[in-house]
Amino acid sequence: MGNPRNPRIPFVNLLAILQFSLVSTLAAARFAPPDNHLIACGSPSAAALDDRRVFLPDSSSALLRSPHPRISVSAAPNPSPFPSPLSRTARIFTRPSSYVFPIKNKGTHLLRLHFYPFPTPDFNLSSAHFHVSAAGFVLLTNFTAPAPSLKEYLVRADAGKLVVTFVPACPSTFAFINAIEVISAPDDLVADVARLVSPDHVENFNGLSKQAMETLYRINVGGPKVTPFNDTLWRTWTPDTGFFESSTASATVSFSGRIMYRKYGASREVAPNSVYSTARVIKGADGLMSDSNITWVFPVSSGYRYLVRMHFCDIASLALNELYFNVYINGYAAYEDLDLSDAAGQLLASPYYVDFVVDASSSGLLNVSVGPSKLSDPLKISGLLNGLEIMKINNTMGSLDGEFSVISILESPRRKTFGAFVRSLLCGFAFMSLSAIVFMLVMRLRTESRNHVAWSPLPMDASEGKLATGNSMLPSKLVYF
Ligand SMILES: *[C@@H]1O[C@H](CO)[C@@H](O)[C@H](O)[C@H]1NC(C)=O
Ligand SMILES: *[C@@H]1O[C@H](CO)[C@@H](O)[C@H](O)[C@H]1NC(C)=O
Ligand SMILES: *[C@@H]1O[C@H](CO)[C@@H](O)[C@H](O)[C@H]1NC(C)=O
Ligand SMILES: *[C@@H]1O[C@H](CO)[C@@H](O)[C@H](O)[C@H]1NC(C)=O
Q1: Which helix H or strand E contains 342, and what residues bound it?
Q2: Which pTM value belongs to this model?
Q3: Model confidence at 24, in pLDDT bands (50, 70, 90)?
């Protein structure tokens, strides 16, 4: 063969190879969660999803703490109403029961609960009524699932384990669950500080990462549905249809170039390419600046605070520093003159997100708007939004579903047992306090006695036993204390 080595080509090749491998490693570097519990409840075998994840059966696992006999049910094989392999089996609880997940990495975890009701001869799953708690927070009270439902929560697990508890709402009913996911959230998924939006000002909201949250809406603005298969954290993003208030001033845009993720910027785990590469923009007609907002409206329950995470990525401007806009939440100014080029490190197509915390208005609706700012250029777009997430934050009772604390929920189906537990706790506490008082008195009297120059033991009653013998200085009535 004798292929003479060309001195120039190898170097160029090397660079190309290096570049290619760098790009492909970056593209392939999927987030690997330290904790990743995927459980198919009541299933005799593992269930493989089309997003390439495998859910393990809970029957053999040590995770389940449930009174025996354990009940599992399967759907009738013929007309499978739901496509997911997780929808064919369920675990039933007629008494309070828990899953205890060991946690390797402290911090925020994603918790997903899958409910696929199906009828069986003994249990009609859609008639179950039950409570669910996790990590000391109430997630669901008197919950019933007439239709398939996937609930997603963000909870902090600090104690080396995460306990998820199911409690039938009354003794005659039962609880069920088809599948559970407990996944470590990436460190950068929930920051601790957000912008708290009030009617007349914006201040810092601290301690966001310590709240429990429920995902209510996760929207790919101006784009298609994104499934767990294509999301970095196995999330689902839905189109904004049904939430976007139609406006003549808006247009959707999509981008086929590369999204410029930056270190310390929004990462792929915060939102994937497919969310940042589509958007809705405010566009004036024929060089006239549009003078209207674009708005999304979401039904929410009042009495809670909400985290509104807005995802931005300037995929529409042709040059830097051409896009300025305002953000309004519930009609309040939340962010004025947002300059995306500046916020995203002087790059176009670079993702950026802002977390706002807002109280629900009494209307039961949460409004999010983007509108032109006084700095907007009449010839350019004057607003944009790529993605939107709305999370409910736990109330002061530590609940995401009503004014019940975890204690009251655990108590409801077996008041007596729980009362007895509380009594024994109180008795234990009283005993320990008394012992501590006695001990302190003894020590004090001993110290005093050592400081005495002359002392004489008091006569002791033999019936006072051991305690008296070592502490002969004690007045006899204290021994009975
Ligand atoms: C749960 O809700 C049902 C109606 O959906 C109601 O009949 C029942 O009383 C409720 N139970 C509790 C314990 O609140
Ligand atoms: C994943 O995304 C690709 C490219 O956007 C798309 O063609 C494919 O249908 C998606 N797959 C699923 C399962 O959503
Ligand atoms: C956008 O909405 C805000 C809040 O409702 C309002 O103050 C502002 O005037 C609106 N902007 C335009 C251009 O309509
Ligand atoms: C959520 O629960 C935590 C712990 O119980 C509490 O410290 C926090 O204040 C609650 N959040 C709100 C918004 O009430």
Answers
A1: helix 340-343
A2: 0.81
A3: very low
Pocket test for ligand 2, best of 50, 227, 230 (most atoms within 8 A of CB): 230
Residue nearest to atom 13 of ligand 4 (CA): 395
Which residue do the tokens 């409570």 mark? 131
Helix (H) / strand (E) element for 465: namely helix 465-470
The pairing of strands 238-239 and 213-220 is parallel
Check whether 416 has a pLDDT greater than 50: no
Q: Is the CB of residue 169 below 6 angstroms from any atom belonging to ligand 1? A: yes
Confidence of residue 267 (pLDDT cuts 50, 70, 90): very high
Residue 225 vs residues 84, 272, 274, 466: alpha-carbon distances, Å:
17, 12, 9, 76
For residue 56, name the pLDDT band (cuts at 50, 70, 90). Answer: very high
Distances (CA, A) of 465 to 265, 435, 457, 470, 471: 71, 16, 16, 10, 11
Q: Is 126 touching ligand 1 by the criterion CB < 6 Å?
A: no
Nearest to 276 by CA among 293, 261, 264, 263: 261
